[in-house]
């Protein structure tokens, strides 16, 4: 029996957050949304998403701290995290992957590309990719 | 008298009340409109996003009967908000929606407004809205009397991309304002390597300032295909153009440019020789080491400095050449070698060798430092000797330094 993959999206920009939620819901995913890093960590611990899409620059806890918190949590260590950020400098990307990100998408982003990356990652994790 | 005063007070009170009422009414109307817009946005935004993510259909079809005339500004705001955050097919859908709703026509019309702030606003919106059909209008706006309008039009053309945008921007490099020219060059450099062909095509029609900016852009684009063209520019009659071409070749870093740049080291104008030396350093052209060594004795300080720094950037071979130069009979050449060896930390590393357990390393370090001191490079050695915590190191360094009687520090 298949369950709907659960995706947590974290972004402090409400316009981007609404776009991501609409995009992922339209594709049949169950979506949790957080407007800051602290809330993202709380939601991740409470709901154990199959995948996380996070921005980097967020209030309270930034994206790097979200990555670190997930990696330090036994139950969430294997949850794949895709970073969706305006940052495209080599050192930022290297730091992101070092902290545990599995993929990196630069804003402004192509929604279809992001969906393809999410699906590919979920398939690798063994979760049903929806549509 | 008291009656006049009373009327005056009443009059003032009436004016004050009228102003207060106007402010309250205005604020209420604004809040009411914002509240209405928020409510309509909550309703319409999901439909607009569904439209953006769908493969077909029109925005009017997606919004259906829900779309009221007053909603247009809400829909426009939603479309523009999201258009700034996505790329690819979703962006194309949002751009098409803005055109379908007549926003693009309105922006194009506003480019002809008498108010400069409105023209600037319109120029910016056209870029965000991805209005490719507005490229000719934006190209015309590059000639606007107001800098703000010109710069926003340039930014929008950069966002829209394409050969026509690039051509208009290259032509605008002739801007009389150096600041504006730099901003336009920034926009062009952000448009990708494909722009280089347009720059080269428009180059002959540019004035002297525009040509220099164009050469900078080609260098910043790191356009490998443009290397032969840049090499030809090394023979330009204008020294500034030759100098910028050399700089651009260094930025691209293609080894094909080494021989022409070595030739440019013999240019009659020192700025060209200086830029050629710098470019050879950026390329890492070790075959140019002998000629760079000679240029460390150039009559122009910039050429000497750039040649020495170029050698310093060439790794072990370059550093070895700088060390050889310490024995030169030319005191300018020796001084440049000392400066770069100090800057690149070579002196500090060799000083450490004085207390190495390995006798050969100690001997090599002492030999090098003696040559350095003889070449006049005693300032850094004296500073290290004064601050080193290791007594043995201080003593060995002091033995290498000339005494005050010998003319030392």
Short characterization:
Chain A is an alpha/beta fold and 131 residues long.
Q: Please report the number of helical segments of chain A.
A: 5
The CATH topology of the domain at 134-218 in chain B comes to: Leucine-rich Repeat Variant
* CATH topological fold name of chain A: Rossmann fold
The helix/strand order of chain B is HHHHHHHHHHHHHHHHHHHHHHHH
How many structural domains of chain A? 1
**Shape label of chain A:** globular
Average pLDDT taken over every residue of chain B: 89
Given this structure, which CATH class of chain A is correct? Alpha Beta
Q: Please report the two chains with the greatest interface, counting residues with C-beta closer than 8 angstroms to the partner's C-beta.
A: A-B, 15 and 16 residues
How would you classify the quaternary structure? heterodimer
Please describe what this structure looks like.
The complex is a heterodimer of chains A (131) and B (409). With 131 residues, chain A is α/β, with parallel strands linked by helices. Chain A has one domain: Rossmann fold. Helices cover 45% and strands 18% of the residues of chain A. Chain A is built from five helices and five strands, in the order E-H-E-H-E-H-E-H-E-H. Chain A has a five-stranded parallel beta sheet with strand order 2-1-3-4-5, with helices on both faces. In chain A, strand 1, helix 1 and strand 2 form a beta-alpha-beta unit. In chain A, helix 2 packs parallel to helix 3. Chain B is mainly alpha-helical. Chain B has a domain of 85 residues: Leucine-rich Repeat Variant (Alpha Horseshoe). In chain B, helix 13 runs antiparallel to helix 14 and helix 23 packs antiparallel against helix 24. The mean pLDDT of chain B is 89. At the A-B interface, helix 1 and helix 5 of A face helix 1 and helix 4 of B.
């Amino acid at each position: 029996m298949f369950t709907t993959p659960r995706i947590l999206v974290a972004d402090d920009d409400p316009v981007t957050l609404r776009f991501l939620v609409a995009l992922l819901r339209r594709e049949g995913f169950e979506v949790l949304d957080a407007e800051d890093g602290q809330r993202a960590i709380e939601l991740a611990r409470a709901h154990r998403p199959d995948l996380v899409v996070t921005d980097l620059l967020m209030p309270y806890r930034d994206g790097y701290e979200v990555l670190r918190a997930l990696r330090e949590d036994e139950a969430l260590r294997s949850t794949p995290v895709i970073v969706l950020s305006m940052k495209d400098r080599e050192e930022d990307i290297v730091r992101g992957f070092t902290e545990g990100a599995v993929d990196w998408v630069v804003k402004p982003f192509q929604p279809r590309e992001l969906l393809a990356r999410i699906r590919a990652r979920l398939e690798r994790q063994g979760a049903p990719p929806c549509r | 008298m008291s009656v006049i005063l009373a009327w005056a007070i009443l009059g003032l009170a009436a004016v004050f009340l009228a102003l207060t009422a106007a402010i309250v009414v205005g604020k209420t109307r604004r809040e009411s409109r914002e509240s209405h817009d928020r409510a309509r946005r909550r309703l319409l935004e999901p439909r607009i996003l569904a439209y953006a993510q769908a493969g077909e259909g029109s925005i009017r079809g997606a919004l259906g009967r829900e779309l009221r005339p007053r909603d247009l500004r809400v829909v426009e705001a939603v479309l523009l908000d999201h258009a700034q955050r996505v790329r690819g097919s979703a962006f194309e859908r949002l751009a098409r929606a803005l055109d379908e709703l007549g926003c693009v026509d309105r922006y194009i019309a506003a480019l002809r407004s008498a108010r400069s702030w409105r023209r600037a606003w319109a120029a910016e919106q056209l870029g965000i809205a991805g209005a490719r059909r507005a490229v000719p209008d934006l190209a015309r706006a590059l000639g606007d009397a107001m800098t703000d309008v010109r710069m926003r039009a340039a930014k929008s053309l950069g966002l829209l991309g394409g050969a026509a945008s690039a051509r208009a921007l290259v032509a605008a490099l002739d801007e009389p304002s150096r600041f504006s020219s730099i901003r336009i060059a920034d926009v062009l450099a952000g448009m990708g390597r494909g722009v280089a062909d347009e720059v080269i095509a428009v180059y002959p029609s540019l004035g002297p300032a525009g040509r220099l900016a164009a050469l900078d852009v080609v260098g910043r684009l790191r356009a490998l295909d443009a290397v032969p063209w840049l090499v030809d520019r090394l023979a330009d009659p204008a020294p500034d153009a030759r100098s910028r071409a050399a700089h651009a070749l260094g930025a691209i870093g293609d080894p094909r440019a080494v021989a022409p740049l070595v030739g440019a080291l013999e240019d009659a104008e020192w700025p060209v020789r200086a830029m050629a030396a710098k470019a050879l350093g950026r390329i890492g052209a070790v075959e140019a080491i002998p000629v760079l060594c000679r240029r460390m004795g150039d009559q122009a300080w910039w050429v000497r400095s750039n040649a020495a720094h170029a050698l310093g950037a060439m790794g072990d071979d370059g550093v070895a050449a700088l060390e050889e130069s310490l024995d030169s009979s030319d005191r300018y050449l020796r001084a440049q070698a000392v400066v770069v060896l100090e800057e690149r930390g070579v002196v500090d590393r060799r000083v450490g060798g004085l207390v190495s357990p390995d006798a050969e390393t100690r001997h090599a370090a002492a030999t090098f430092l003696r040559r350095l001191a003889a070449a006049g490079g005693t300032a850094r050695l004296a500073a290290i000797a004064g601050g080193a915590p290791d007594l043995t190191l201080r003593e060995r360094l002091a033995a290498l330094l000339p005494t005050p009687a010998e003319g030392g520090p």
